[in-house]
Design goal:
heterodimer; A: 198 residues; mainly alpha; 0% strand; B: 79 residues; 4 helices
Chain lengths: 198, 79
């Protein structure tokens, strides 16, 4: 039978070792989501450097409070929540306050109709008439409240439920913002296309 | 999909259809309409292609060595 007086010291050392092991595992698992989070960071706004700084800040915060993560829940969504908060803090610091100027919202077929009416053969790949640059710019020009949901779902591959958790809003809000955000994106692409063609 | 104007109804359903957010009945109604209506089908195919293009254009690869840098700057090596 072990001497009961040795138990506290021994178990505390063991606890520290176990904790270090758990933390190292947590860190590696968290880092396995870096590519997905980078895509989100890059499209939330900012240059490559800013995206990497944002990601670094998010990982620092996540590792500092790693114990507050509930094992078995969605780690990528948890990290994305931290990333988004870090992004909002950075915006506040730079006082680049998110603006929400209204943009005209068009129907779902609007972009196709505008692109198709330009050429005699709408059968050919109409989507090829959009430039990659126009897409990136249009996405960046979306009001932040719509951009973040489009970025999370359409680019970051997060589900509606994940996006709702990350943004702290009901799932219905995610769906309506996504719906409006995609329409605004298409409206903006149509405008850019017309400007370019003019 | 209501009885108003089938193409307007389909236009409203294309996004939720692509998101798999419609009920089974609604899904079948959209599919039936798309089979019959070349006008909507073209626009539906465009939406599918557009999603792929937006994704392709927006998903650049992370800079080389990103994970290694994050590991060395953020991980707790003393633990």
């Amino acid at each position: 039978v072990a001497d009961p007086t040795d138990a506290p010291a021994e178990s505390s050392a063991r606890r520290t070792a176990l904790e270090a092991r758990d933390r190292a595992r947590f860190e590696e698992e968290a880092l396995s989501h870096a590519d997905q989070l980078y895509r989100v960071a890059r499209r939330l706004g900012g240059s490559e450097t800013e995206a990497e700084e944002l990601l670094q800040e998010a990982y620092l915060r996540a590792f500092r409070s790693w114990r507050s993560f509930t094992p078995g829940t969605n780690l990528a969504a948890w990290l994305a929540t931290i990333l988004r908060n870090a992004h909002l803090d950075a915006l506040r610091r730079r006082s680049r306050r998110p603006t929400t100027e209204p943009i005209d919202e068009k129907g779902d077929y609007y972009l196709y109709n505008r692109l198709a009416e330009d050429a005699p053969e709408p059968q050919q790949d109409v989507v090829e008439r959009l430039s990659g640059e126009a897409i990136v710019e249009s996405l960046a020009a979306l009001p932040p409240v719509f951009r973040e949901v489009v970025v999370l779902v359409d680019i970051g591959d997060f589900s509606y439920a994940d996006a709702a958790e990350i943004l702290g809003v009901p799932i219905g809000t995610v769906m309506s913002r996504l719906y409006r955000g995609r329409r605004l994106l298409k409206g903006s692409l149509a405008e850019r296309h017309e400007d370019g063609a003019a | 999909v209501s009885a108003v104007d089938p193409c307007t109804a389909a236009e409203e359903c294309v996004q939720p259809y692509l998101d798999r957010a419609l009920s089974a009945d609604e899904r079948v109604a959209v599919e039936r309409h798309l089979e019959r209506c070349a006008y909507c089908r073209k626009r539906y195919e465009f939406e599918v292609a557009l999603r792929l293009v937006v994704r392709r254009c927006s998903c650049e690869n992370p800079p080389p060595g990103l994970v290694e840098r994050l590991r060395s700057r953020c991980c707790d090596h003393d633990a």
